[in-house]
Amino acid sequence: MEKIKRGKKGVSALIATVLLVLITVAGIGIIWNFVRPMLTPDDSTLACMDAELTISTDGGYTYMNDSGTNVSLQILAGSKAELEDMMIRVVTSTGKIITKNVNESGIGKVLGPNEGDVYVINVGTGTNVTSASVAAILKSKTTGKDIICPMGNAKNIPLFSDF
């Protein structure tokens, strides 16, 4: 037994302590990489908070026309809206969902801060629209990709004859 112990040397206490500290620091760094994204919101969350879009039912600009072919929506932007595009979604009485991007469909211009406009969407003959909602589409400042914000609260659309 003595021969075996004499030929082998152990790791000094100083080297063992340094190794333990390095392993601990590396472990904390690895764990932090997984925890940090959960603690800090990405730029899409923050940007969507500023991109406030609402459908106004006041003033008589939001309605379904009598013939049931077009829906007119007055959309207002908040003071911090820097939009790339806008997505408008209408739901018909038959359950059909019609989604239009303002830039792609050519139904109007994208709103700037504190702006409002009326958008007319053709929904087909004899179709009643029951509700509509709008979402902002932004450009990510970090990735350059489009961010589609959640749809706002759906608004019930009155018939023109109800005014």
SSE series: HHHEEEEEHEEEE
C-alpha Rg (nearest Å): 29 Å
* Strand percentage: 25-35%
CATH architecture classification name of the largest domain: Sandwich
Helix residue percentage: 25-40%
SS element count, helices: 4
Query: Could you name the ranges where pLDDT drops below 50 across 5 or more consecutive residues?
Result: none
> How far is it from the N-terminal to the C-terminal residue, by CA?
103 Å
CATH structural class of the largest domain: Mainly Beta
Principal-axes geometry comes out as rod-shaped
Strand tally is 9
The CATH topology of the largest domain is: Immunoglobulin-like
| Corresponding CATH superfamily of the largest domain | Macroglobulin (MG2) domain
- Kindly report the average pLDDT value: 82
Structural class: alpha+beta
Question: How many structural domains?
Answer: 2
